[in-house]
Hints:
heterodimer, A: mainly alpha, Arc Repressor Mutant, subunit A, 2 domains, B: 4-stranded antiparallel β-sheet, 8 strands
Amino acid sequence: xxxxxxxxxxxxxxxxxxxxxxxAEAVRLHVEGCSACAEERRQLDKLNVSIKSVLASQxxxxxxxxxxxxxxxxxxxxxxPAGWLDRLRMPLGRPNLxxxxxxxxxxxxxLYSLGVWKEQTPRNNFAAVESxxxxxxxxxxLRENETRTTVIWLYQNQxxxxxxxxxxxxxxxxx
Amino acid sequence: xxxxxKLRTRALLFSFLGILTAAYLGAAETASQAVKxxxxxxxxxxxxxxxxxxxxxxxxxxxxxxYKSYRLLKEESQNVPSQGNGSFQIPGGRTxxxxxxxxxxxxxxxxxxxxxxxxxxxxxxxxxxxxxxxILGGPPHEGGVLVLAIWATVQ
Lengths: 175, 155
């Protein structure tokens, strides 16, 4: 003897004729004697009728224009920029690449922060000189815009006070 | 059910990566770090028109000077801690002392002292871009002048 819950699980299959003869007979007997399960059966029948009526009202799908359009697109000659755009779009549309691009950006950020990038002088290479003391010698300061270079140049003063090396240096800056 | 799970894992992974990067960059800005000081000691003269090929990265900058010949005499690097002193021997019995003071907004504050064999020649305080350089020149040497290219890079 099956419970109401078990019968209700089988009612749908019974309506679709999917049960064995013995099972179908057991369900039929239960539904005839049980108002709750009979109600379940009625609801299912109503649902089936509704679905069938919706499906019956559907117009047949017209595939012909679709196939004609597809054939036309295949056979038509594409201009070369459009062809290249399609080729570019194709890999970008793949889901793996959608993750690949942020992954590459992330990797580039990490590599950059770790200083793996080739060392090069920064765009703004100017040094901000705050103080210079040349101990009485002449000193010239050059800030050159094109190469953004700062040059501090020591040169001989008027008294010829140079280092004790005896070597003489220019009496003017080297730029 | 499978796809949202994967998506969630990947999103978490990228968030973690982003946070890690941001934290690393932030830490690099604020922590007191060692500064790699590199000194290229160059002899500039008018003796011949030779340009040392090792000085290629400095070529444009050296062209600002009026000399015809440039030869790399010495290249030396030291990792100098913040507030520490890096001492570099310069030809002619001179010493260059470089002391990183601070690193903020990608700028390195440096104290630079050029010491002659007997007396100081120059004291300067300046701020240099990270990975940047400046040129200090003038001391006479072997018929030419010494040109020092001073580079600073936060480690």
